[in-house]
Amino acid sequence: MSFRVLTLNNISVRGLERLPRERYEVASEIGHPDAVLLRSANMHEMDVPASVKAIARAGAGTNNIPVAKFSKRGVPVFNAPGANANAVKELVIAGLFLAARNICPAWEYVRGLKGSDEQLDKEVEKGKKKFVGYELPGRTLGVIGLGAIGVEVANTAHALGMRVLGFDPQITVQRAWQLSSGVEQALSLDDLFSRCDMVTVHVPLVDGTRNLVNANRLKLLRDKGVILNFARAGIVDEHAVVDALDGDKLGAYICDFPTTLLKDHAKVVALPHLGASTGEAEENCAVMVVDTLRDFLENGNVRNSVNFPEAVLPRTTSATRLSIVNENVPNMVGQISTALAAANLNIADLLNKSRGDLAYTLIDIDGAVSPAVLEQLNTIHGVLAVRSL
To answer: Do 92 and 224 sit in the same domain of this protein?
Structure first.
């Protein structure tokens, strides 16, 4: 069995090399693709062929992908959570220093000086008082969202001598194990803001997180506090931030999302979306998501999907594997099993998982499965996609 993969962006060669050329055709223009591989391309208005069985993004966020539409088609959307965590963490830590030591305005001040070296020395000594900063040890950092990036930021800030408060009501057991024991738990977002000098956000942009950093919470922050946003622009209400900066409540806003309102503000450092812009992060993301995509196409296994449940079933020797996506409603497994039994097909192994409105089933069958059986499974009300592997 061979597969065709459509690329919408330049993908790291290191990742593409993990798709064997004898089994995979990969191109930026290709007909009837089995999968789409992308980074930042906007898919919301794209006409995606019915042949597509999976969408794979070499990155963490999926705001550029109409996930709900693909869920209705029974198509998983994969991402690469944590592959760019170190790159983003390093930029966040750099942001802490930029804010604490007034590095950007100080640099701009020096670039504007004129005259001889002797004159520069005098101006530097006279002007440096305007850029007196503070040291990080003893300051309190609030980390909102303790996923792969948030945990790394929290641990590094703690190692730098900061007091760190974390808030994530949905933290996984895996991330909790990785978190330094010195990181304290905030009871709520309001509790976190009221006890912090600096706050950094590391959550996805969804309805519940839009404008999470708003005027009311900024009022709770300690005076001259700092907000860092290297997650998504909409998580922070930029108008509220500018008001707080102009009113001297907020000391600085460091972000990765320039806008006309922010880019020229004296207390804002707005970077051009550099969070994951390292060669290492691009390679790591490509490798992770390509491996995930390949395992799904060849074995039906699901890992790191934003809309499907995790489902990993070891292959049964010499068995035919069925991959079935359906609406998460009662008696679906029963109807599927009945159809297979009627065709005198024996189930060697089965895994059924659900997530929200979707359910996913992997079934290993002794012997071959005819096209007629696949067609019968497709006719079951609520079945969205069926594949034989």
So the answer is: yes
